[in-house]
Automatic annotation (TrEMBL):
<comment type="similarity">
    <text>Belongs to the Nudix hydrolase family. NudJ subfamily.</text>
</comment>
<comment type="subunit">
    <text>Monomer.</text>
</comment>
<dbReference type="GO" id="GO:0017111">
    <property type="term" value="F:ribonucleoside triphosphate phosphatase activity"/>
</dbReference>
<dbReference type="Pfam" id="PF00293">
    <property type="entry name" value="NUDIX"/>
</dbReference>
<dbReference type="GO" id="GO:0004787">
    <property type="term" value="F:thiamine diphosphate phosphatase activity"/>
</dbReference>
<keyword id="KW-0378">Hydrolase</keyword>
<dbReference type="InterPro" id="IPR033713">
    <property type="entry name" value="NudJ"/>
</dbReference>
<dbReference type="InterPro" id="IPR000086">
    <property type="entry name" value="NUDIX_hydrolase_dom"/>
</dbReference>
<dbReference type="InterPro" id="IPR015797">
    <property type="entry name" value="NUDIX_hydrolase-like_dom_sf"/>
</dbReference>
<keyword id="KW-0460">Magnesium</keyword>
<dbReference type="GO" id="GO:0017110">
    <property type="term" value="F:nucleoside diphosphate phosphatase activity"/>
</dbReference>
<protein>
    <recommendedName>
        <fullName>Phosphatase NudJ</fullName>
        <ecNumber>3.6.1.-</ecNumber>
    </recommendedName>
</protein>
């Protein structure tokens, strides 16, 4: 019997709050339009911090400076075919790049309150979205010094 090779998909996400609202993206998925934090896959050769800065810029046209690790989250899709290992970072945006085109599949960037997020839970890409926001609101922040990149 051939052994199945399994590994989680390592992803990063930005948890960005401004005036009680969180930066999200609305994106096209096989399940229809869904909300997500600016997020994406770690690419070969980059650090987790480099990945979250890149993904935020590509998906929202905002320059992001990570300041904290909000949490590490593991989620397996209901289909059981993919497991995600998400590193969520909190920080600040340092401006928007005017006229920058967003990644393919990203319809728009928008700012939502936690209540608006809860009201749209059926349109979330994963349960990690609201959990990351709830953890941020609860004050969960870990120093970036926890991470090492060699």
């Amino acid at each position: 019997m051939k052994e199945r090779s399994w590994k989680p998909n390592v992803t990063v996400a930005a948890v960005i709050e401004r005036d009680g609202r969180f930066l999200l993206v609305e994106e096209e998925t096989p399940e229809g339009l869904r909300f997500n934090q600016p997020a994406g896959h770690l690419e070969e050769g980059e650090s987790l911090l480099e990945a979250v800065v890149r993904e935020t810029l590509e998906e929202t046209a905002h320059r992001f400076t990570p300041e904290y690790l909000v949490g590490v989250y593991q989620w397996t899709r209901p289909q059981g075919d993919i497991t995600y290992l998400r590193f969520a970072f909190g920080g600040r945006v340092d401006g928007e790049v005017s006229g920058r085109r967003l990644d393919d599949g990203i319809v728009r960037a928008l700012w939502l309150t936690p209540d608006e997020l809860r009201a749209t839970a059926e349109r979330h890409r994963s349960p990690m979205i609201l959990q990351c926001v709830d953890d941020w609101v609860a004050g969960q922040r870990f120093p970036l010094s926890l991470l090492r990149h060699y």
